[in-house]
Amino acid sequence: MSYSVSGGSDSCYEGTRVLINKLGIRDEDELMEVETVITAAKITMLLETPYTGPFTAEHYRDLHRAIMGDLYDWAGEIRRVPLSKKGTAFHSPANLERDTGLLFERLERERCFLDLDGEEYTRSIAEFYSDLNLLHPFREGNGRTQRVLITQLIERSGRSIDFSRCDKDFLMIATVYAAQGILDHLVEFFRSELERK
C-alpha cells in the first residue's frame, strides 16, 4: 500500500493507512499478506481460461472486481482521489472514468493490435500498457489487474506472456521511464518476454 494519496486517508481506517476491508484487518502488513494470497488465487483462476469477450472498460472493471472484490467494497469502482507512487502522479480523478473508456475505445478501433506483427505489435502493447498504467483507475490493485488484462490481450493474438516469470524490477523501472515519456525500456521488456520460450 505504498501509494501517496492526496486528501489523507481516503478509504482507510481512521488514523491509519490501512484500507477499510471486508475482513476487518487493521494491520497494514497483515492486510498485505492476506491480500497477496487472495489476489494470487483469483488471478490464477482468471487466467485458467482464455478470455473471449470484448476488451472494454467494463471488462477491466469486472477484472478488478474479480481480483479485489473479496477484500474491498469499492472493487471495480473508479477511484475518486489523486494517487501517486514512486514519483509518478497518476491521472487526476477528474474525467478518469471518461478517459479510461476512451483508451479502451481506441484499443477496439485498433482491433486489439491483431493486425500488427513484430516490432509494431510489441510497441503497441508497450504503449497501451503505459497508457493504462498512467490512468491507474482504481484505489488499489491496478498493477495486478493490468497484468491480467495484458495477458489476456496478448493471448488473444496467439502469443503468450507469463508475468510471474518476468523481471519485476526491470518492469517497474521500465514503467517509471515510460511515465516520463521514455518508452524504449518498456518495449524492450515486452520484446524479451514475448520472445521467451
Structure description:
This protein is mainly alpha-helical. It has one domain (34-80, 87-195): Fic-like fold (Orthogonal Bundle). The chain has helices at 28-47, 57-68, 96-109, 118-135, 142-156, 168-179, 184-195; strands at 4-5, 83-85, 88-89. A three-stranded antiparallel beta sheet has the order 1-2-3, with no helix packed on it. β2 and β3 form a beta hairpin. The longest helix is centred in the first third of the chain and has 20 residues, at 28-47. The radius of gyration is 17 Å and the shape is globular. The protein starts with a strand and ends with a helix.
Strand order in space, largest sheet: 1-2-3
Known CATH architecture: Orthogonal Bundle
Shape: globular
- The named CATH superfamily: Fido-like domain
Mean residue pLDDT: 94
Distance between the termini: 33 Å
Identify low-pLDDT runs: none
Report the C-alpha radius of gyration, rounded.
17 Å
* Number of DSSP E strands: 3
The CATH class, by name, is Mainly Alpha
Question: Strand-and-helix sequence, N→C?
Answer: EHHEEHHHHH
Structural class: mainly alpha
How is the topology of this model organized?
Layout (H helix, E strand, L loop, with lengths): L3 E2 L22 H20 L9 H12 L14 E3 L2 E2 L6 H14 L8 H18 L6 H15 L11 H12 L4 H12 L2
Antiparallel strand pairs: 1-2, 2-3
Brief sketch in words of this structure:
With 197 residues, the chain is mostly helical. It is built from 7 helices and 3 strands. It is globular, with a radius of gyration of 17 Å.
